[in-house]
Design brief:
mainly alpha
Length: 203
């Protein structure tokens, strides 16, 4: 089967991309969605004239910020009850615990840093809400993080696409997307390795 990721993004269109960005940022079930690679690929697709890069970025930014606000409201409203929730195939308490540890380590700037870390990205605003971070403070970090993430990664894909000859796009796109996915997973892998090392030391 031929996996044409460009065609997939083209089929999704603006609202499909924005919907996924919103879900990953604001819904508990969105932690598995490919935000980094999606933004990069959408930027790449835009470089081929299939989407308007500025419309794409602006909509992605709005949905990312709005999604984090929903996550914050969820944490603020349901608070510690989320930690009592039973695990299911869509929800794993360990993600909340992991994000809480990340938040305790990095403080308020977690809202910015988390944008670039899969899974943590989804749960960071929830933990901010649980911890009752002042909303104005949260929103400030939310705007900065949403801007850096959506503009940075999407424009990276756009300019890389512009730098490749048109006949080379299909040849290099999938390997590049693979590299982006691996890079986006590195922070999570390093965090897991650090946790395992610390747990062994404690034992």
């Amino acid at each position: 089967m031929h996996f044409d990721i460009v065609q997939i993004v083209k089929s999704l269109g603006y609202f499909g991309v924005w919907g996924i960005i919103f879900a990953e940022s604001g819904l508990l079930i969105g932690f598995f969605l490919p935000g980094d690679s999606l933004l990069f690929t959408a930027g790449f697709v835009s470089s081929q004239g299939l989407l308007n890069i500025w419309v794409l970025i602006f909509g992605s930014f709005v949905c990312a910020v709005f999604g984090d606000n929903i996550g914050y409201a969820t944490g603020h409203r349901f608070g510690r009850n989320l930690f009592q929730k039973e695990d299911s195939w869509l929800f794993h308490k360990k993600h909340l615990v992991k994000t809480q540890g990340f938040y305790e380590q990095h403080g308020k700037k977690t809202i910015v840093l988390a944008r670039f870390v899969p899974i943590i990205r989804t749960f960071a605003p929830i933990i901010a809400g649980v911890g009752a971070m002042h909303y104005r403070t949260f929103m400030s970090y939310n705007l900065v993080g949403g801007f850096l993430w959506t503009f940075g990664i999407t424009l990276l894909g756009f300019f890389l696409g512009k730098s490749l000859p048109a006949e080379q796009v299909d040849k290099y796109l999938l390997p590049i997307i693979g590299i982006v996915i691996v890079i986006s997973l590195i922070p999570s892998i390093l965090h897991i390795l650090k946790e395992n090392r610390e747990s062994k030391i404690k034992k």
